[in-house]
């Protein structure tokens, strides 16, 4: 099959919320069986293995829902010149298509990981890390527009619940209002964030410093009463070597006040030290960092993680598309990586 035919088949499965994930897994099994792969289920993930490999490739099967703005059928691959349109073609069925096509071009050992629930809760990769031992190197086949990403920021996400005393606003004082306590805490976060910006920048990332955001806040129920309850949800996207500092600071701030801290995500950053000649001759590009969050962040620190896939990155957009020529180039790189890992 041509690589665009493989992609067309993958697009035909409606994997929004993983609804047709098993149908897609059946296609992958049938396709790879002809190329001497063996299969196993790890949790609800599919793992395909050919020989004892030093390299693995990881792709998630789920997509975001299709918006009403699509001009074509989202589950039918449409080609217009070099552009291939379809739901999930970019994020990230193009990556899976490149994996499958690369497997047909070489007989060397390789392991493929097919996960689920990446778009919502990362349940699939959590299944894998609980049970699976990974090879030396894993390529995460997300759309990077052929940029080679060898570092990823961490995520420290948390909720803080504040308590106050409900009284009429005519007799209110600052210490009784849970919203004031929340805003004071937010100011502390902003001061801390400003201090972190003074640290040595990591220019691998487009945002070279650890960043902070307060994404949600809710409190109070009446304009003429002090707020008895208020909560916020905030996160830090941490540079390598600063995650522990953030974790300790938030815990210390929460211990200094009568508040409740709930940690929602505590995911370490990573930065691979790529050895000269290990992969740079194949990629022939500078390594960069990923400001966002992918499944790479969950893999063991002992595994070299590279995020690399086709482009352009039109993820989560109506009329999502990928370049056919970019897809072919990426599949060729995957093939070369498999070949090199067996030497």
UniProtKB/TrEMBL annotation:
Molecular-function GO terms, alphabetical: hydrolase activity; metal ion binding
Keywords assigned by UniProt, alphabetized: Hydrolase, Metal-binding, Zinc
Record domain Peptidase M20 dimerisation: where: 153-256
Cofactor (UniProt): Zn(2+)
InterPro entries: ArgE/DapE_CS (IPR001261), Bact_exopeptidase_dim_dom (IPR036264), Peptidase_M20 (IPR002933), Peptidase_M20_dimer (IPR011650), Peptidase_M20A (IPR050072)
Keyword Metal-binding: yes
PANTHER family, A to Z: ACETYLORNITHINE DEACETYLASE
UniProt name for this protein: M20 family metallopeptidase
Species, as recorded: Lactococcus protaetiae
Taxonomic lineage from the root: Bacteria, Bacillati, Bacillota, Bacilli, Lactobacillales
